[in-house]
Amino acid sequence: MASLELRNIVKRYKSQTVLDNLSLTVADGETLVLFGPSGAGKTVLLRLVAGVIDPDEGKILIGGEDMTDLDAEFRGVGMAFQNFALFPHMTAFDNIATPLQAKHSSQGTIKTGVESVAKLLKIGHVLSHKPRALSNGQKQRTALARALVGSPPLLLLDDPLRNVDAKLRFEMRLELPRLLADRGATVIYVTQDYKEAMALGDRIAVMSQGVVKQLGTPEQIYREPANVEIARLFGDPTINLLDVKPARDAKGIYVGLSNVQVHLAGAHEAAVGRDCVIGLRPEALAFVDERTPGAIPVTVEAETPLNEKIVTLVRTVRGREILVSRPSGTPGQSEGKVYIAVDSKSALLFDRTSGERIGSKNVVNLRSGEAA
Amino acid sequence: MEHTSLLERILRGIALALVVIFFMFPIVWILMMSFQTNETILRIPPQLVFEPTLANYTALITGKLMTAAGTLDIAFMRNLWNSVFLSVTSVAVALLLGVPAAYAFARHKFRGSEDIAFTLLSFRFAPALLVLLPLTLYFQKLGLANTYIGLIWVYQLICLPLILWIVRGYFEDIPADIEYAYRIAGHSWFATFRKIALPLAGPGIAAAGLLAFIFAWNNFVFALVLASADKQPVTVGALAFITSSGIQYGQISAAIVLSITPTLALALYAQRYLVEGLSLGAVKG
Q1: What does the mean pLDDT of chain A come to?
Q2: What total of structural domains would you count in chain B?
Q3: Is B182 in Cβ contact with A88 (below 8 Å)?
Q4: Does the CB of B124 have a partner CB in chain A at under 8 Å?
Q5: What is the mean pLDDT of residues A117-144?
Q6: Most CB contacts within 10 A, which of A122, A184, A243, B145?
C-alpha cells in the first residue's frame, strides 16, 4: 500500500550536490535503514520524502502515486525528528493529537487515539506536561507517538535515538522493531549507529556523499561490504586493515602476513599481483598453537574485556597492530608471544587505491540501488 | 545571597537609592509641577512643600487655559485622542502588514528578499525632514495632507520597519523543524503560521508592537508638518502651551503626565507577554 520509490533524485544547495541521482525502492511494510556519516544526505533524503523540501530533479512515488509536487500535509506520512521538534506551547497530549486534529477527528477519537499510543510508549502519565517539563526520553517518545498516532502507512524516523541516553537507546533498540512490525508500516529509519542499523533494518542503505554506496541486508553489508569505508563503519571492534599484495602458488592465492603465507579461501583471482588491503574482522582471528599451518607470531600489547567478549591488541613482528576478539571464557593469553591464525574464508580484499572490494561471489555492489 | 555585612547592605541601599533618585527625579519633578501653579513653580529657590492644585488638569480637560493675558482655548484632550487613535491604528496596520511579511522574510528566501527587507529598514536611516518635503508635496496633490489616513500611512515609516525586523528575528529563532512537524502532521501552511509561528513569536510581536507604539506616540515632526490643529497629536499640541504671556509650566507638566500615562499603562500591560524563553525545550541542542 505504501511502498516508496525514489527515481533519480537530485538535490543541490548552491553549487553543492547533496543527493546525486539517487534511486531507491522500499517495499510495503519493509524497514529500510539509511546509514552513513553525517553530511551523507540522509536527513535531506528524508525531508524530500516528507515533502518539506523539494528535489531539483527526480520523482518521489509513495504507494505508487507521484507525490513529487505535493505539499507535506497531503502526503500522509509520519515523521519523528532527531531533535524531537515538539510544539513547546502545547502539552504532550496536544502534541501527539496534531495529526488527528488535522484529519478533523472527533474529540473522542482523538482522546482514544492519543491515549492508546501513549500507553504503548509508556508516556501516559505525562500527557498533561508541556515539552519543557519532559525528560529527553519522554520527549523522544512523545515525538515518536506523534509520528505513530495517525497510523501513517509510511513512517520516517530521523535518528530518533540520537539524543537520548545510552540506556534508553538500548531499550528502544529492542522495543522499536516490535513496535514497527506491529504497525505494519513502511519505515525509513536514519541512523549513524551501526548497531541500530543492524538491529532494525530489513535492509540497509549505506549512504555517503549523496549516493547509496551499498544496499543490502545487514548480513550482506557486514559480510560483503562494498568498500573499505563500509567495512570500517560496521563492526565493533573495527575491522583490521592491512596492506598486502596477494600472490599465487600451487596451493592457491595467498597473502604474506609477517612472513607467513596465509592462503585465502574464496575467489580472489582478480586481486593477484595488485596492491590490496586485507580486511580481517577481529572475530575472524583466533589464538592458535604455533604448529598450526599459517600461524602468525605476534606479541600481546593489551587486553580489554568487554563483557561478552575479550578484545586483545597484538603487534606483529613488523610492528603492525591487530585487534583480536574472542568470546569471554575462551582460553587466550594476556601477555607475551602468541600465535594467531586467520579464518581465511571471511577475509576481505580491497583495492588499495579505490578502496573497492575485489569481489568474490555474491558481490552486492550497488550504485544508486539498482536491483541485485 | 552570601554573608553580607550590615555595612555592605547599607551601602548598597544608599547606592540603589541614589540611582533611583537620579533616574526618577525628572519624572517626579514633573509630577510635582503638574500640581502647582506657574508662580510656585518659578519661585526661587524651588520648594518641595506647596499647596497642590488641580487647576492644571481642569484647564487641560475643559480646554480653557487661563493666562495672565486672558483665557485661551486649547485642544489638549482632542490632541490626546488623536495620539491614541493615530498610534493604535498605525501599530495595528503595521502589525497586520509587518508580521506576515516578517514571516515571509524569515522563512522564504526568494529573489530580492534581502534587498526588500533592507529597503524597508532603510526608511529608518533617512532623516525625517529629508523625506518630509517631497512627501508634503505629494500628499497635497493626493489630498492626503491633513487626513488621518495620510498620517497613519506616514507613521508606517516608523512602525513597519521596526516590527518587520524585530519580528523577523523571532520567527527565524523558531526551529524550522517545529513548523515542518506541524505540516507533516497534515496542517496547511496557514494553520502552521497561526497555530505554531504566531504563538511562538508572541513575545517578540508584543515587544515590537510596544516599541512601535512608543515611537509612533513620540513622533513629532511628521505630525507637525502634515497635520493641522484638529489632527495633531499631543507632541505637537504641547506647543500651544508656549503662549504670548509665557510658558505654562504647570499645564505642560500636567499634559506630560497625561500623555505618558497611556504608554506607561501599555508597557505595564504588555510586560507579561514579554516573557522570554517560550520556545525553551522544544528541540534538543
Answers
A1: 87
A2: 2
A3: no
A4: no
A5: 90
A6: B145
Q: What total number of domains does chain A contain?
A: 2
Grid coordinates representing A340 are: 594467531
**Residue A369 covered by a domain:** no
> Which residue in chain A is spatially nearest to B199 when comparing CA positions?
A89
CA atoms of A116 and A100, how far apart (whole Å): 13
Amino acid letter, residue A151: S
Query: Distances in Å between the alpha carbon of B264 and those of A37, B22, B143, B208, B261?
Result: 55, 19, 35, 15, 5
DSSP A253-273: EEEEETTEEEE--S--GGGTT
In a domain, A372, yes or no: no
Return the CATH number at A315. Answer: 2.40.50.140
ipTM above 0.85, yes or no: no
Q: Is residue A190 part of a domain?
A: yes
Q: pLDDT tens, A285-327?
A: 888 888 888 888 899 988 888 878 889 999 988 888 899 998 8
Would the pLDDT of B272 be above 50? yes
Q: How many CB atoms lie within 10 A of CB B184?
A: 30
Asked if A13 reaches chain B (Cβ–Cβ under 8 Å), the answer is: no
CA distance B178 to chain A (A): 5
Using a CB-CB cut-off of 8 Å, the residues of chain A touching B279 are: 88
The reply to whether residue A88 touches residue B200, judged by beta carbons under 8 angstroms, is: yes
8 Å CB contact of A132 and B283: no
Binned at pLDDT 50, 70 and 90, residue B2 comes out as low
* Residue at a domain's end among B24, B53, B73: B73
Q: Which of A73, A99, A132 minimises the CB distance to B281?
A: A132
- The range of the structural domain enclosing residue A154 comes to 4-227
Q: Are A202 and A260 within one domain? A: no
B285 is a domain residue: no
Alpha-carbon distance of A190 to A170, in angstroms, equals: 16
Helices (H), A78-224: 92-102, 107-120, 136-148, 166-183, 194-200, 218-223
